[in-house]
Amino acid sequence: MAETATIARPYAEALFALADQSGSLAHWSETLGQLAAIAQAPEMGQLLGNPKVTAAQFVDLFSVGGAMPAEAKALLQMLIENRRLKALPAVRDQFEHLKAEREGAVDAFVETAFPFQSGELEALVADLERRFKRKVRPQVSVNKELIGGARVSVGDQVIDGTVRGKLDAMNAGLMGS
Description:
Helix content is 60%, strand content 14%.
């Protein structure tokens, strides 16, 4: 995993510099998301090892469904020729991280035992924005095993307000006594 991140970093940084300079961060974010989704398709993995598939054919596979910008074709061509196509999802992830830093935003992964009611997510986001002094982009998932409450991960910080977390902490405390 670390190797893929190391391979992806220069591509992501170069793309980010290009997109930032041209004012097209949102466009590149969307384009990279689409390209990464195609690259992660199981069928694409099967084709990667096939020496009969040319770089041009790979680029054509990615442009199914519409015309592709010349810059995106150039990126794909470079990744394919350098045998780095598998790193495309990591390039997208690192690009998104750089974009979030530029925008002063941070992703918050919120696990909750039950779906949020009206206004609850907005209130949580407002609290997180005050705490982290940045714009928060929530990504919410429901996990019934939490029993109640929510767990929020922002970067390397975890805020565990779940019933499951409190029960585990009580259990650890009792076992240690």
